[in-house]
Amino acid sequence: GSGSGQVYSLDAATGCTYWSFEAGMGVRSAISIGSIAGGKYAAYFGDLGAVVYAVDASNGKLLWKQHVDDHPVARVTGAPVLFEGRLYVPVSSVEEASAMSATYECCKFRGSVVALDAATGKQIWKSYSVLDPAKPTRKSKAGTQLYGPAGAAIWASPTIDAKRKLIYAATGNSYTDVDINTSNAILAIDMDSGRLKWASQVLAKDNFVMGCRPGQDGCPAEMGPDHDFGSSTILRTLGNGKQIILAGQKSSTLYGMDPERQGKVLWQIKLGQGGALGGIEWGFAADSNAAYVAVSDRFTRSGGTPGGLHAIRMEDGEKLWSKMPAKLDCEPRAKGCNSAQSAAISAIPGVVFSGSVDGHLRAFSTKSGEIVWDFNTARAFQTVNGVEATGGSIDGPGPVIAGGLVFSNSGYGVWNGLPGNVLLAFSVEGK
Q1: CA distance 100 to 95
Q2: Which of 35, 68, 392, 406 is least enclosed by beta carbons within 10 angstroms?
Q3: Which residues contact 144 (CB under 8 A, 6 or more apart)?
């Protein structure tokens, strides 16, 4: 996918294009592939206009598309998840930014998971993360009508629990003063009906919209720190046969939760300072023994070092090792001079891959955290399609590993990062 809305199918060995498809808006979600009738495969994805697409994976022709939310700034940022003929789609929004306007009637958006028929795109059910629709609450001093409750966007892909027939969705912050128990929470949704089975909230009253200060007119009276869950949960089976839900928050806290006891927190461990752009940002990884967690802490409050990679034993939440970044030899305010590891990470047996805002893609040993290889992507590249390209900061989506290759994008110009426009393919040895 791409910010322009083009979705590409590339030859993994050469990078040559098989086909491209133009969505209505930028495509930030990953692409999910699944079989369809006649032995063919479909590619499923969502765009920043809250439209979900199914295209023929062999030729890029549209099979169907479905608009999953009517709010003007709703969007799909997490990959749709395909399971047993249904597509489960997370819905988020940028209404937090809309609320920066003093005349904006904040706020009405409610996060959701939408179940679609994978063959036709027809909606089967829609489960909101904010149970009650927004109602008028009060007027600001400027006379703007305010609403609530709202928020609890679902930024990342939901997680399937086939054993319990549940879907786990991690939610973001509340946008208003109206209390809800489903923001900054893990939700368990019945796979068949869409009914909410339970919610495990880790931080109440995280009421946040952009540009607000405590006491500012039209803003929540009680402001929170914006500690969303921006990462998908991970469901794993421990050595004793019991299962655990892992959830990473922007507070930099990793939680271990019990799926048998409505998400009861079994343990938690704080791995950094946390913040609106800090903590565990876009995705962590886990094998059969440990969770591997990269920390952003992009803008630290007390002069600490951004970044770091940590291995946490899933059984009890004990830290196995930490690998902190070396000090960067550049001007701290320069674009890309930041060691934050905001991007989602990926793991294969023995190795964790983590990109950094400084443009480096690194492979770490899962046993010790030592760096196996390190490649600086923040430079010019000669591309296979002849387009002039440079790498930059690595943020957002994580690397994909398949067929002995590691694929990573490079270039992310937001939040003082280095822009770029390149997709890179490496051997697993970093060449």
Answers
A1: 9
A2: 35
A3: 102, 103, 104, 105, 218
